[in-house]
Amino acid sequence: MKCPKCGAFIPDEAVYCPSCGEEIKIVPEFDPLIENRIDESLSHLASNLDDTGEIPDEDYVDFDDDDDFDGNEEGHIFGSYKVTICILCIVLITLLGSIVYYLINSDSPSDTKPGNPSVASTAGVDPDSAEGSSQDAGSEEETGPKAPTFSMASGTYDTEIEVYIEAGEGSIYYTINGVTPTLADTIFNGVDPIIFDKNGIYTLKAILVDSDGVKSEVASVTYEIAMPVPDAPTIIEDSGNYNVDTQIAVVTSEGTNVYYTTDGTDPTADSTLYTGPVSMPYGESVFKFVAVDNETGALSEIVEREYSLHYTVNVSQEQAASNLVTLLVQKGYLLDGSGAVAGSEGYNTYSVTSTEVISSGDYYVFTEYHMGTDGSATPTGLLYAVNVHDGAVYRLGIDGTGNYFLKQLT
C-alpha cells in the first residue's frame, strides 16, 4: 500500500506513513463468518415481512381488551420496535466483533508512529546500508585542521622536561591545567618549549586554529614530574631577636646549590645564590632558603627564618636630648643650653616623637619647636636623629618615598 500523501510504501497494518507521518485510515476487514451470520439474520427477518412491508399479525403482540389502548394498533408499534432493536443489536454485535478482531490481529500504533526510536532506526532501511550511509555522510563533512601533536608522550618523568607542540598552518593555543584552550589562552610560538621543572601532575591541552578560524579537535597529554627531592638546607642562625651584628650561615648538601630571598617571596634557581655567610640586616627581616639539585633542577623544601636585629639601647632619651642641644650650641645654632636663638625672642625645645630604624641603626627622632614669649609652641620644620647605641647626632631628612635619611651637621 502507498501513502496517499507522499506515495511512499507503507507496511501492512501501519497506521502512520514512516516517511511523512501521515495518518493512514484503514477500514478493518471483517470476519467472513460474522458477515454470513449478518446476512442470514437479515434474510430471515425479510422472509417474515408480508408484501406490504409489515410484520404479519401473528407476530404482533396481543393485548387484553381491558387495556387502555387498542391492542392491534399497539402491536404494530411494538412490532416496529422489535425490528429496530434487532437491527441495532446486529450492528452492535458486528461492531464489537470487528473491534476484537482488529485488536487481536493488529500491532500497537505506537510501534509504527514516526519518531519512535525503535522504529526510526530500522523502518524501511537496511541496517547495513543505514550504517554505510551514515559513514558516507560523515566523510563528506568538513573535518577541519588536524589536532596538534606533542614532542613528549604522556608519562612519568624523574627530571624536568621541555615540550614542543607541532601542528599545521595556523595558531596553536594551549593550557597546562587541564582546561580546554580557547582563543584567549597562551599561543605557542613554535620556538620556546614549554618547560615542566617542578614536581606535580600537569595536563597539557592544545588546539590548532587555521586561517579561516576553524578549530581542530583538542589534543591532550598528561605528565607527572617526579624528580628526586634534595635535602633542605640547614640554617645555623635560628629565628629570633639579635642585638649585635650577626652573620647568617647555611650548610648545603653535596650536589646542590642554595638560593635565598629577603623580600618574602619563595626562592628559585633564579634567586640570589648563597656563596657564603650573609650579614643580618638591621631591623626586621625574613630569609627564605631552598636547595636546588645541580643535575635534575629539583627543589628542596623551603626553609624560612625571621630575624630582628636591634642594638642594645645605651643612650636614654634625656641623654640623647642633651647630646643634641650640646652639638647645636657647638655648631652655633643655639646661644646656650637653654635653647636661646640669636635674633629671636623665646627659645627652642626638642621632643622625641618616635624611635626609627635608619641606615642599619636605631635612632630617636626629635622634632624642633620654637617657644614664643606667649608660651605658644611652633614647629620649625627641622628634624634631628640621635643614635640610641652611641649617642651620635644627625640632621634628619625625608626622601621622595617618605623614608628617613641622615645628614651630618655642618
Q: Evaluate the radius of gyration.
A: 55 Å
What can be said about the biggest beta sheet?
5 strands, mixed
Mean pLDDT: 82
Unreliable residue stretches: 59-71, 107-140
Number of strands: 23
Share in β-strands: 25-35%
The helix fraction, in percent, is: 10-25%
What form results from the Cα inertia axes?
Answer: elongated
Structural class: alpha+beta
Strand order, main sheet: write it out.
2-9-8-5-6
Question: What's the total helix number?
Answer: 5
Order of helices and strands: HHHHEEEEEEEEEEEEEEEEEEHEEEEE
Distance between the termini: 121 Å
What does this structure look like?
There is one protein chain. It contains five helices and 23 strands. With 410 residues, the chain is an alpha+beta fold. Among the domains are: 149-225, Sandwich (Immunoglobulin-like), CATH 2.60.40; 234-309, Immunoglobulin-like, CATH 2.60.40; 317-408, no CATH class. The model is unreliable at 59-71 and 107-140 (pLDDT under 50). Keywords: Membrane, Transmembrane, Transmembrane helix. This is Zinc-ribbon domain-containing protein. It comes from Butyrivibrio fibrisolvens DSM 3071.
